[in-house]
Amino acid sequence: MNTCGNCGATLAAGAQTCGACGAATGAPPPPPAPPTPPMPPAPAPGYGAPAGYSGPVAPKTNGMAIASLVLSLVGLLCGFTAILGVIFGFVARGQIKRTGESGDGLALAGIIVGFVIIGLGIAWFIFWVAVVASSDSTYNGVIAPLLGGG
Hints:
mainly alpha
């Protein structure tokens, strides 16, 4: 057991100062702490973004633009939705100009496809009116007066 040379108090094993008077004991300092382990290597380039960085964010696609194209394409099956596709397309383009969302191409495609389908529907209707009006069928008595025929 060691005692303090200043006050004679008993010292704890490995103590550098006396607990009673605070004098230095002359004991050797404790050994240094073990070295810290090395940092892990950096990830290889091209394998994802570093933690905390998600990269650039793409602008949101306008929902009306998507609906415009979908409704215009559904107009192939039933022509009435093509009219809604054209309307939604014009509304979507206005929203896209104001908000900066993406989807202008979708809206434009919905407008173009919608107008083409509406035009084909009108041409189809005119064709069938002309066919029925020029035929000698029982329908002639119904449609011919509408077209000015006898």
